[in-house]
Amino acid sequence: MRYVADVAALARKDILLELRSRDTLPAMLLFVVSALVVFHFALPADTSATAETGLLWIALLFTALLGLVRAFVAEREQRVLDGLVLAPCDRSAIWLGKAIGVLAFLVLAEVVALPAFALFFGPLSWELVAAVALADVGLASVGTLLAAMAAASRARELLLPLLFLPLVIPIVVGGVGASVADHPGRFLAFLGLYDAVFAILSWASFEYVVTE
Predict the structure, then answer these.
(1) Which is nearest to 147 in space by CA: 89, 100, 209, 104?
(2) Other CB atoms within 10 A of residue 8 CB
(3) What's the rounded Cα separation, in Å, for the pair 93 and 122?
(4) What is the 8-class DSSP label of residue 181?
(5) pLDDT tier, 207 (very low <50, low <70, confident <90, very high otherwise)
(6) How many CB atoms lie within 10 A of CB 198?
């Protein structure tokens, strides 16, 4: 129960800071909606559904990256992360609390992005919504670990994309496949397996990342 309380406190801290500062979420919303508007007017009328769905996943991927770049800004500027590492709690709780906060921001951004996609390109399918939900877990899991690694570097704005983008290519493959394939079940299962594997790896390795 102590572990759950620590995670809840850390996640609540991130969400309350964002509600007060309004730094990350508005930028994510502006970026993803602007990207969809540009795609809508730039694509020819006969563009395939596969291409449209692929562009949606690109927009969601870079929206997540935008949020992750700022995920550890408060901890880095005020040296809060040092205090959290020294606190008498399991260090994996820091990762889980931060990942829950990142996941919440992604979901809020997609509450706007998915209806905008439906308005510009066509109706949403349950497969697409399910794939986005599963992808969010993977993006938050992997992204939080890599954002913590990059936060200690002076070139963090460059390092995070270099680490993050190659690792989330399977999410894009699985997400697009689940959205357009005739039998999306195997792609959804692939996304679920990716989430499980990388969430466990991130949870187990976070302690070694923040202590180096």
Answers:
(1) 209
(2) 14
(3) 40
(4) -
(5) confident
(6) 20
